[in-house]
Amino acid sequence: MLAGIAAVAFAAGVGELAAAIVAPGSSPFVVVGSALIDLAPAWAKETAIALFGTADKIALLVGIGLVLLLIAGLAGVLEVRRPPLGRVVIAVIGLAGVAAAMTRANAGTLSLVPSGLAAIAGITALLLLVRRLPVELAPEPSAPARVEEPALPAVPASAPAQAAPAPAANAPAPTSPAAAGQLDRRRFLGWAGAATAIGVLAALGGSAMQAGARAATAVRDALKLPAPRSRAVVPAGADFGIDGVAPVITPNADFYRIDTALAVPAIDPADWSLRIHGLVEREVTITWDELLALPLDESITTLTCVSNEVGGSLIGNAVWLGYPIRELLARAAPTAGADMVLSTSIDGFTASTPIEALTDDRNSILAVGMNGEPLPAEHGFPVRMVVPGLYGYVSATKWVVDLEVTRFSDTTAYWTDRGWGELGPVKISSRIDVPRRGQPVTAGTVTVAGVAWHQHVGIAAVDVQVDDGEWQPAELANPISADTWVQWRFDWAADAGEHRLRVRATGTDGEVQTSKRAAVVPDGATGLDERSITVG
Ligand SMILES: Nc1nc2c(c(=O)[nH]1)N[C@H]1C(S)=C(S)[C@@H](COP(=O)(O)O)O[C@H]1N2
Ligand SMILES: [Mo]
């Protein structure tokens, strides 16, 4: 039993530490607890709240811990009596953790790591510990399963070991079986204690690493943003509602995430401030409370990553709540000659934005809200920049804390230092969402649909080409604005056989999306999205 408990304690620690490092939010305890909360019937939740009040979550975690302790002891006993059943039990617990992690709303591939790694650690520790069991308790590898044997007798430390095999080959000197047993027992207790201690330390370390994030999450969850001065409106007919086509507003949980932050910065808004300095007549610093006291407007802007391949998914559209950067810059009064604003995030990421994109009449904002909530931690809580028309790497600084008004000739930023283009305007593009790749298609009328964008310019038309035929106009949904993507659809009279579909957007400025392929480096991919389709 002790071997099982020590192995599982070790495993749990490994899992918590792994979660803190690679997948905050996928702590095995937390994901299992969250899954249980989701699965629990209403009466169970109400009973828990009635019994434990606001301590219901602690009670749940303690409960999970106790159940785990029982299973751990059982796994130890099973591993000795019916190997490899003990390891199987640990593997099953690990799989349950992985399953729980993968069903969480913000699950990614990394979410399976903590529980997976914990299971591997637990199985390994159990094997090693069972091998080090005092001889009289150790399983006899060659003996058949001791099904008929009575329960293992409790052997007093001084009693001669029963049926003890020869002392281990590396035993220092011939000793009596009793002395060897005692030595073995002490060694085993040492190993089990070490495994448990490492597990506890790892869990404490992991939990300390996550404490900051948890505190910031608690603050965020309790936060109520002020009502917007003006609300953004999604016009009727902006979303065709076609299954498989990206919804016109991207839910936060589905919004792509790109950044250099290995651990998501945890900022308490009470400690947040933004400093505007450099080539300005007066330095300006604004705190969280000051920012929230300003009139905040909702606006809808599509964000795109320069690393988005043609047809890729690094694009999303959200309702942002924020304050115009142009107004704050006006307070600071940039001096003549300034042509760039270098924004810096709390973790040192920088972006260089052409100053006119922040001072012209476009809606460049310091955003505090995303789709009706405070910014999610991964999307820049408490404050980020959103600039229509520019790729994220030159404009959309998350966790922003500093704006330096400067010149392109004087300073460079994170990605421009690494060879990416200086200006970063979003290139016109379009994407086929349906038919999905590999989706079976039968002859007849087939809906082909997707999205197209040319931020801050607008989309005038989308055309579809079947095989090498004429370009045919698609129907456009009602656009929200020139700063957002627009859905398109095309009813294709498909006949059986192999076909190729391509899509092409035209901007309101007359620019036609080029078919010439360019890689994402240095300033965004070009080319046309296409699908090969077998119509059955
Ligand atoms: N602090 C910080 N902000 C950042 C980045 C980053 O690495 N660190 N990446 C930028 C890039 S390249 C993009 S495309 C957008 C992505 O924003 P999202 O993760 O909210 O979709 O954030 C931008 N802001
Ligand atoms: Mo990006």
SSE diagram, text form:
Blueprint: H1 2-22, H2 28-39, H3 42-52, H4 56-81, H5 85-102, H6 113-131, H7 177-222, E1 273-278, E2 284-287, H8 288-293, E3 297-304, E4 315-324, H9 325-332, E5 340-345, E6 350-354, H10 355-359, E7 365-370, E8 373-374, E9 384-386, E10 400-406, E11 429-434, E12 444-453, E13 459-466, E14 471-473, E15 475-476, E16 486-494, E17 497-507, E18 530-535
Parallel strand pairs: 1-10
Antiparallel strand pairs: 1-2, 3-4, 4-7, 5-6, 5-10, 7-8, 7-9, 11-12, 12-16, 13-14, 13-17, 15-16, 17-18
Helix pairs in contact: 1-4, 1-6, 1-7, 2-4, 2-5, 3-4, 4-5, 5-6
Bound molecules: ligand MTE and molybdenum atom.
Question: How would you sum up this structure, described in words?
Answer:
The chain is of the alpha+beta class and about 525 residues long. Helices cover about 30% and strands about 20% of the residues. It has helices at about 1-20, 30-40, 40-50, 55-80, 85-100, 115-130, 175-220, 290-295, 325-330, 355-360, and strands at about 275-280, 285, 295-305, 315-325, 340-345, 350-355, 365-370, 375, 385, 400-405, 430-435, 445-455, 460-465, 470-475, 475, 485-495, 495-505, 530-535. The strands form 4 sheets. The protein has a 5-stranded mixed β-sheet with strand order 2-1-10-5-6. Strand 7 (about 365-370) and strand 8 (about 375) form a beta hairpin. The ligand Nc1nc2c(c(=O)[nH]1)N[C@H]1C(S)=C(S)[C@@H](COP(=O)(O)O)O[C@H]1N2 binds near residues 259, 392 and 399. Keywords: Membrane, Transmembrane, Transmembrane helix. It holds the Pfam family Big_7.
